[in-house]
Write a structure and sequence with these properties.
Alkaline Phosphatase, subunit A, 30% helix, 2 domains, single chain, alpha/beta, 14 helices, Arylsulfatase, C-terminal domain, eight-stranded mixed β-sheet
Length: 497
């Protein structure tokens, strides 16, 4: 097959994978040989973060390249159709790419294309009214007995874990890889391909196939949960299996991590399966493919008695990010780089557009990682900012700023602050806000966050100061209404035509 001047583009995402959970990150237990191989052929970013650590808003950042204030989603709230000024698949479609998504999208409404030519969806445990995902339809057709997808009794957001009761080939992770192979095989051969392969794991339920459970359940080096000197207020067991904050026993945490790590290794092996089949069928096409691997957010996994996501701490906010450059690029971009600059999900869209020879639209707030890796970035950002508005309780609304070495956290309903030196305390066990030696550094970061808010018209920054907001405020930014109204107008025009 003739090589395209534009590279093929492959975006691989997982759901809820911590930034430290890769073999190439030096994790003491997790095995990810195929993702590690991708990093060896490109770059690994040590300080990659999500700007909003939950599914829907994080994915809005991926698909639009926008700051969360600008795309409007500051939490999971909001299921309206939105008409963004530009999306990654939309721009690539307009430029001649065949654009496809397989796996988890988490759009609203579920079948919204957002510029993709076609999607094949796994929305995991969600069976909303009028919507059955393609995975569920496949499962119901292919299952070999009278059992259901969720018959293992592990809730969707539970901290519990066990091996899957499903045959490996019916697990959603296997299905997503199979559909990705099918998407490569059935693509338009006259166009370059953009494929988003989006796995719905390692997000709970922590239910890997038996073989992957066995890899970790007796593993001697699964780390214990880290508990900070500030976390005593959460040091209590809660009888809810979905509790976002609860103290669990060492054994429960070990089993939870065994299931979580098993999901990660299963995904990694399926990535290897996809790349093998792609290379067997079209070796020249694979050689001309830019690959980005990342996740939408992390998982606390019991650290500080916290579970799941939506938190500013490293387990929730820091994500993996590795890239593999096309072979055809030769030595124009160095291989095997390990970069320390702070990056975030909004950088994915301009990276792919840059690789395709396209300018980023004015609505895009991110920057191309390619410019960082090939040395053409003249002035990379000094820090990233993230946030999540109220979710589990009134304490929950927060913002954070970090450069990967230090992190400042502000809770915008309570006014509380936290500050961590990540160089000496990577697990955020020691809150330094009461240490007089850090007062000057905290003030620097406090002013940085206030400036970010003020510049984007966010009421949380006024006159160079951070301004607390009443409980319930800022569930969404004003821009959410802007894109919702644009979608309503477009749909009205279509319905009236």
């Amino acid at each position: 097959m003739a090589r395209y001047r534009k590279p093929h583009l492959l975006l691989i995402t997982t759901d809820q994978q911590r930034g430290d959970c890769l073999g190439c990150e030096g994790h003491p237990a997790v095995e990810t040989p195929y993702v590690d191989q991708i990093a060896e052929k490109g770059a690994r970013f040590r300080h990659a973060y999500t700007s909003v650590p939950s599914c829907t808003p994080a994915r809005a950042g991926i698909i639009t390249g926008m700051d969360p204030w600008n795309h409007g989603r500051l939490t999971m709230t909001g299921n309206d159709p939105l008409d963004y000024p530009a999306t990654l698949p939309g721009e690539l479609s307009d430029a001649g790419y065949h654009t496809r998504l397989v796996g988890k999208a988490h759009h609203a409404p579920q079948r919204t294309l957002q510029g993709f030519h076609d999607t094949c969806l796994d929305e995991s445990g969600r069976r909303d009214a009028g919507f059955i995902s393609d995975y569920h339809a496949h499962f119901d057709r292919a299952k070999e007995g009278e059992y259901g997808y969720r018959d293992h009794s592990i809730e969707w957001n539970s901290w519990m874990a066990r091996p899957s009761h499903l045959p490996e080939h019916l697990h959603p992770t296997y299905w997503t890889a199979s559909e990705a192979i099918r998407a490569v095989e059935t693509r338009d051969p006259t166009r370059p391909l953009f494929l988003w392969m989006s796995f719905a794991r390692p997000h709970s339920p922590y239910d890997p196939p038996q073989a992957y459970w066995d890899m970790y359940v007796d593993h001697p080096h699964i780390p214990a949960a880290h508990v900070g000197d500030w976390a005593a207020r959460y040091d209590r067991p809660v009888a809810d299996v979905n509790a976002p904050r609860t103290r669990r026993s060492d054994r429960e945490i070990h089993r939870g991590r065994a299931g979580y790590y098993g999901n990660i290794s299963f995904i990694d092996h399926q990535i290897g399966r996809v790349l093998y089949e792609y290379g067997k069928r079209d070796p020249e096409g694979l050689a001309n493919t830019l690959i980005v691997f990342t996740s939408d957010h992390g998982d606390m996994m019991g650290d500080h008695h916290h579970w799941r996501k939506t938190y500013p701490y490293e387990g929730s906010a820091r994500i993996p990010c590795v890239v593999q450059w096309p072979t055809a690029w030769g030595e124009d971009v160095p291989r095997g780089q390990i970069l320390n600059e702070p990056i975030e999900l909004r950088d994915i869209m301009p990276t792919f557009l840059d690789a395709a020879g396209l300018d980023a639209p004015d609505s895009v707030d991110g920057e191309s990682l390619l410019s960082l890796c090939n040395g053409t970035a003249s002035d990379w950002r000094p820090f990233v900012q993230g946030e999540h508005t109220q979710c589990y309780d009134h304490e929950h609304g927060m913002q954070y700023v970090t450069d990967g070495d230090e992190k400042y956290i502000w809770f915008h309903h309570t006014g509380e602050e936290q500050f961590f030196d990540l160089r000496t305390d990577p697990h955020e066990c020691h809150d330094l806000t009461r240490d007089p030696r850090t007062a000057e550094r905290i003030d620097v970061w406090r002013k940085r966050l206030a400036q970010v808010n003020e510049e984007r018209g966010d009421p949380r920054g006024q006159g160079g100061q951070l301004v607390p907001q009443p409980e319930g405020a800022l569930r969404l930014s004003p821009n959410y209404s802007r894109w919702r109204d644009a979608a309503a107008a477009r749909m009205g025009d279509w319905q009236g035509s």
